[in-house]
Structure formats: structure tokens, C-alpha cells
């Protein structure tokens, strides 16, 4: 197999396992990436910002809530969505995060648990990118254990009054609406909090060394008064937000392969052109061992993502399998990024090459939407039948 066939990546000719429609989705996102994203992503990352106008670019391509049906959403397959996530994260994890939070978290919560009025009001505009959403579950003191959340919602006549704070919220400072989860006197409920509601403020989190091409914020709620129709009527308890997180994790297990692919391609190209001791470093055994190991992990991760996508489209996917995919593929991608950095040597730590940017991003991806430790325990319980979280 030639190196060119690897760099186009499809290891083991995985493209043959995609349908014509799935390849068309891939090509459309690659085209957007080449024209609009890749030329600017280094600047966005270095500046620690992302243009809000990207939402409408993603909306025009049908990427926002693309796996949802109706209300202006594209209604595409799980594998279509996975392929799109892969191509976006091949550019930068922050771009895939934007699409994941908008579609898999905020829009999915409204689509799955909202009233018909809420769906009609929010989803069509979110699908076009006119409206940006965020998803408020994680708190300053409660990440892996959301059952301990301190954000509270109390009844006051027909209204609800919310108090609390949410942390590490992607899109928070640019969102037009926040899906906020709060404990009530009986169970956790979801609430739609429009930007500008009195008592609701956001604070962008600065000084990040990872996911810099992404807006991350704190949500602050102080006596935020909402009408009765702001609550999501379709669910109570943590089953609601956790099911949305499972959708986001699905996108991550595909997206991580995109980051890994970029790092692998960069390492192969660099090793072929970097000359030391009179020949390209690709000709040295230690470099070839690194590339071979990276290729194997990348191929296994891509196959795992595709199989999980096929199971999801067939209606046979379990949360435990999503945990397996997220745990394996992010861990493998991070290993590939780190190994690729060693091949690039000192050049690997600059923005001239994408490897360190991807490696830094993947440190966050390893943690969010369930840490590697939590997904390990999910699999441990699935294997043994014994929960070990406490």
C-alpha cells in the first residue's frame, strides 16, 4: 500500500464501507474545511476566539442538528453525522464541539423533551444557525457526579425561579438560549433560558491552553424568573441530560479519529521530507515503528466508529458501547498526537504544524462528556454487573 493511499486515509480502504451518500457528506464538509476553516483556524486558536458567523455557515450545510428529523433539520443518518464530525475535528476539536453542543445537546434536548411550541419556536432557527444554543449541566463543584448539582429551581406561583451556576459551558457567551438543568423539589428538570433574561449572565473563561478555537463560559443564575412554559415537559430526572450527553459522545468518538488522522498525515509527510544523517527520517526503523503503531490505532478506531454508527442507525446502540468508543478513540487519538509530535521534534510545538494544537485539544476531549475514568467504570459495570462509582 502506498503512502499516498494512507494519507488520503482510508486505512484498509475504509471508504469502501461508506455509502455514496455518506461519501458525499464527507466531501461536502471537506470542501467547507478547505475553503473556510483551514485557512483561518490557526488564527482563531491563537486568538482564543471563534467567529459566531460560523454558525450560519454550518447551518447552510445542514450540519446543525443534522441527525434530527423535522423542524428544518436535515434528518440524516448517524453515520452521516459521524463522518461530518470526523471531518470537522480533522480541522480542530473546537469546531466539532460547536456543532456537537448545538445539535447533540441543545437541539436534541428541545427536540426530544420539549413541547411542540418550544420545538417550533427554537429548532428551525437553530438549524440555520440564526440562533445559537448551549447546554448547562456541569457545575463548578459537580462534573462527573451531576446528581450533586446545586442549581435549584423553585415554584413561585406559575413561574419558576432559578439560582445557581454552570461551568465549562461551550458556546455559553454567544448563545441565544441556554438549556439549563436544575434540581426541583422532586427531580431534576430542564429549562430554556433565553439570553437577556434578568438575573442570567455569562462570563467567558479565558487563559485556556486547550480548545482555544471554542467559546467556553460560566453561566450565572441569580433569581432568574421564568414562565411555566420554559420548562421542558418531556422528562424529569437525570435521564434527560445524560441521554443528550450520550448523543454528544457519539460525535466525539468519530471526531477524535479526525484529529488523529490529521496528526498521522502530518507525521508521514514530515518524516518523508525531513532529512537527518543523510536520508529522510521516514527511513529509520524507530520512525517506521511509530508510524506503523499510529496507523494500526487509527484504523482500529475508524472501524470502531463505523460499527458503532451502523448499530446506532439500526437502533441497536447502547450507552455502554458509546462509552467504549469514546474511551478507546480519544485515548488512541491522544497517543497518536503525542507520537506524531515526537516525529516532528521541536517543529511539533509550533502552530506552523497542527499536531500540538490537536494534542492540546484532545486533553480536553479526554475529559469532557465523561472522563476516561468514568467511561472505564461504565465498561467495568457492563462487564461485571457491579457498579464501582462510589
TrEMBL record:
Residues 19-130 form the Acyl-CoA dehydrogenase/oxidase N-terminal domain. Signal peptide: none annotated. Residues 237-383 form the Acyl-CoA dehydrogenase/oxidase C-terminal domain. InterPro entries: Acyl-CoA_Oxase/DH_mid-dom, Acyl-CoA_Oxase/DH_mid-dom_sf, AcylCo_DH-like_C, AcylCo_DH/oxidase_C, AcylCoA_DH/ox_N, AcylCoA_DH/ox_N_sf, AcylCoA_DH/oxidase_NM_dom_sf, Glutaryl-CoA_DH_mitochondrial. Gene3D superfamilies: Acyl-CoA dehydrogenase/oxidase, N-terminal domain, Butyryl-CoA Dehydrogenase, subunit A, domain 2, Butyryl-CoA Dehydrogenase, subunit A, domain 3. Keywords: FAD, Flavoprotein, Oxidoreductase, Transit peptide. Residues 134-224 form the Acyl-CoA oxidase/dehydrogenase middle domain. Its cofactor is FAD. Belongs to the acyl-CoA dehydrogenase family. This is Acyl-CoA dehydrogenase family protein.
Amino acid at each position: 500500500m502506498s503512502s499516498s493511499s494512507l494519507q488520503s486515509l482510508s486505512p484498509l480502504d475504509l471508504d469502501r464501507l461508506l455509502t455514496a451518500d455518506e461519501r458525499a457528506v464527507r466531501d461536502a464538509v471537506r470542501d467547507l474545511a478547505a475553503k473556510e476553516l483551514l485557512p483561518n483556524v490557526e488564527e482563531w486558536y491563537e486568538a482564543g476566539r471563534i467567529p459566531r458567523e460560523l454558525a450560519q455557515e454550518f447551518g447552510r450545510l445542514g450540519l446543525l442538528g443534522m441527525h434530527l428529523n423535522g423542524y428544518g433539520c436535515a434528518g440524516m443518518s448517524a453515520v452521516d453525522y459521524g463522518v461530518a464530525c470526523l471531518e470537522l475535528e480533522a480541522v480542530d476539536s473546537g469546531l466539532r464541539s460547536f456543532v456537537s453542543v448545538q445539535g447533540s445537546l441543545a437541539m436534541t434536548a428541545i427536540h426530544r423533551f420539549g413541547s411542540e411550541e418550544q420545538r417550533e419556536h427554537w429548532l428551525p432557527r437553530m438549524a440555520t444557525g440564526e440562533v445559537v444554543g448551549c447546554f448547562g449541566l456541569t457545575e463548578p463543584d459537580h462534573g462527573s457526579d451531576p446528581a450533586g448539582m446545586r442549581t435549584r429551581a423553585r415554584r413561585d406561583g406559575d413561574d419558576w425561579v432559578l439560582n445557581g451556576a454552570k461551568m465549562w459551558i461551550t458556546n455559553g457567551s454567544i448563545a441565544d438560549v441556554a438549556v439549563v438543568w436544575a434540581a426541583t423539589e422532586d427531580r431534576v428538570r430542564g429549562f430554556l433560558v433565553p439570553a437577556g433574561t434578568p438575573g442570567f449572565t455569562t462570563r467567558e473563561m479565558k487563559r485556556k491552553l486547550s480548545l482555544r478555537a471554542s467559546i467556553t463560559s460560566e453561566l450565572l443564575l441569580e433569581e432568574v424568573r421564568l414562565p411555566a412554559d420554559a420548562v421542558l415537559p418531556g422528562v424529569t430526572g437525570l435521564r434527560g441530560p445524560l441521554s443528550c450527553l450520550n448523543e454528544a459522545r457519539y460525535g466525539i468518538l468519530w471526531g477524535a479519529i479526525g484529529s488523529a488522522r490529521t496528526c498521522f498525515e502530518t507525521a508521514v509527510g514530515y518524516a518523508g521530507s525531513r532529512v537527518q544523517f543523510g536520508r529522510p527520517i521516514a527511513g529509520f526503523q524507530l520512525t517506521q515503528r511509530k508510524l506503523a503503531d499510529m496507523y494500526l490505532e487509527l484504523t482500529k478506531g475508524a472501524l470502531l466508529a463505523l460499527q458503532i454508527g451502523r448499530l446506532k442507525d439500526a437502533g441497536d446502540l447502547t450507552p455502554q458501547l458509546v462509552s467504549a468508543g469514546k474511551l478507546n478513540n480519544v485515548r488512541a487519538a491522544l497517543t497518536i498526537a503525542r507520537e506524531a509530535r515526537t516525529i516532528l521534534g521541536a517543529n511539533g510545538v509550533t502552530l506552523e504544524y497542527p499536531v500540538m494544537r490537536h494534542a492540546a485539544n484532545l486533553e480536553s476531549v479526554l475529559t469532557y462528556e465523561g472522563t476516561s475514568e468514568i467511561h472505564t467504570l461504565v465498561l467495568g459495570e457492563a462487564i461485571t454487573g457491579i457498579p464501582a462509582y462510589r
